[in-house]
Automatic annotation (TrEMBL):
Record keywords: Membrane, Transmembrane, Transmembrane helix
Record keyword RNA-binding present: no
Region (Disordered): 422-443
Pfam short name (any one): LtrA
Signal peptide: none
Segments traversing the membrane: 27-46, 52-70, 82-102, 114-136, 148-172, 184-205, 217-239, 245-264, 292-309, 329-347, 359-377, 383-404
Name of the protein: Low temperature requirement protein A
tRNA processing recorded as keyword: no
Length: 443
């Protein structure tokens, strides 16, 4: 009873309306993910090895699964209304703690033992908050509530595995066996999480507002792209040092190729996919939302983090006065830069196929150009390697602007008509308030 009274004073939870868009609190919540992406990038860039890359991708996958569950909850409740923000702030604190403890998660077995425990406890709090909100949102809806019961085993099993990964490996005398066990348990967590989303199917799920769902995922992708720029600026030693002539074109190219990758998705594919999700209804809509947005955005963001690590190392080499302009990139910097862009574009092509059932062959050509350019770039100075990748990305945008001009114009016309109709309908609805009949406007 006291809990109901407290919720009453805060106001009731508000369900998502069919035409709802992202509210301000959701954008505020996303800022915590900026920290998470940044920490993953910084921790990996400090020691780039195959094992560290695996660790970064595992942590990203677990973090992204929490994001998927978060987006499912946000597709049913307004996160900034009623008592919901109180629980979400608790979730934000847990997520922030999760992010801060990430660098110690995969340290040596006998170093920073508190880090893995803290990550697991934060994970439990995040999942508990989402579970409580989803349970509230599905009251009186048996089919949706059954979906909740289907996911409880996944939460329990993955939590147990994370605790085992934190506690058991340090007890093993053979370090290699302990490290392998820890990595294997994290791999099992990721496989169980994403397999559960496929095995349980689409029954009981719903995407009430396609506009809200697509905007939610588009914003987090933009955040990831923005984080890559921050990582290049901070990790590449562009801040706090005298500006050098090589640093200027390096910084400009870092912005330019990131903008080209933004354009590659958000100019045509993103808006067209939004319309496709609006057109789908029922289970096909849920399946598209799951496959294209929840699952395929993960490799896109992974690609962003990979090319951010590579670009950061290249910019650091370019701005290092000891090496000079002609110095080549160190270690895996060039492969990570090119591979990250290739992963991003390949995932975007898969996204396009899943939502639109079309394939843009210029993207295939760019993937081939990047694959052919990688061995060449490894023998070029760091600035030239960055310039080669930038030229390929900008060329993609330029070619598609010419070849797809008619399709682009038709899409812009469709979007304009849609927005005009929406604005006309909203203006007509609001006009009833000015006609002196506010009760009719609230019916």
């Amino acid at each position: 009873m006291e809990g109901e009274q407290r919720r009453g004073r805060l106001g009731p939870a508000v369900p998502i309306a069919p035409a709802a868009r992202v509210d301000k609190f959701e954008v505020f919540f996303d800022l915590v993910f900026v920290v998470s992406f940044f920490i993953i990038t910084r921790a990996t860039a400090a020691d780039v090895t195959l094992r560290e890359l695996l660790h970064a991708l595992l942590v990203l996958a677990v973090l992204w699964w929490c994001w998927i569950v978060h987006s499912v909850v946000a597709s049913r409740l307004r996160l900034g209304e009623g008592f919901v923000p109180v629980l979400m702030v608790i979730g934000m604190m847990a997520l922030f703690t999760f992010a801060l403890a990430l660098p110690q998660t995969f340290d040596g077995l006998h170093e920073h033992a508190a880090g893995p425990i803290l990550v697991t406890l934060s994970y439990v709090v995040i999942r508990a908050v989402h579970l409580a909100l989803y349970a509230h949102a599905t009251r009186g809806r048996p089919s949706a509530r059954r979906k909740l019961y289907q996911f409880i085993p996944e939460i329990v099993v993955t939590t147990i595995l994370l605790f085992v990964a934190a506690l058991v490996p340090p007890m093993i005398k053979n370090t290699d066996v302990g490290l392998g066990l820890r990595d294997g348990l994290w791999v099992a967590v990721v496989l169980i999480q994403y397999a559960s989303g496929l095995v349980t199917g689409t029954r009981g799920w719903e995407v009430t507002s396609a506009e809200h769902w697509t905007e939610r995922y588009d914003l987090i992708l933009i955040i990831a792209l923005g984080e890559s720029v921050i990582s290049v600026g901070v990790g590449g030693n562009l801040l706090g040092k005298p500006v050098t002539w090589p640093a200027i074109p390096a910084a400009m190219m870092g912005i330019l190729f990131t903008a080209a990758l933004w354009w590659a998705h958000f100019d045509m594919i993103g808006p067209a996919a939004r319309i496709a999700l609006h057109s789908a209804q029922g289970r096909p809509r849920v399946a598209m939302a799951r496959d294209a947005y929840a699952y395929l955005y993960l490799p896109m963001i992974a690609g962003v983090i990979l090319f951010a690590i590579g670009a950061e190392e290249l910019v650091r080499t370019i701005t290092d006065p000891a090496g000079g302009v002609g110095e080549r990139g160190h270690g895996p910097a060039v492969p990570l830069l090119f591979a990250g862009v290739m992963v991003y574009l390949a995932a975007d092509m898969a996204f396009q196929w899943r939502t639109l059932r079309t394939m843009t062959w210029t993207r295939v050509g760019v993937l081939l150009a990047l694959a052919a350019g990688l061995p060449v770039a490894e023998h070029l100075p760091a600035l030239a390697a960055l310039g080669l990748l930038t030229a390929i990305c900008v060329a993609l945008v330029a070619v598609e602007l010419v070849l797809l001009a008619d399709a682009r114009h038709a899409l812009r016309g469709t979007v304009f008509e849609e927005k005009t109709h929406q604005e006309t309908s909203e203006a007509a609805w609001r006009a009833r308030w000015h006609d002196g009949d506010p009760e009719q406007a609230t019916e």
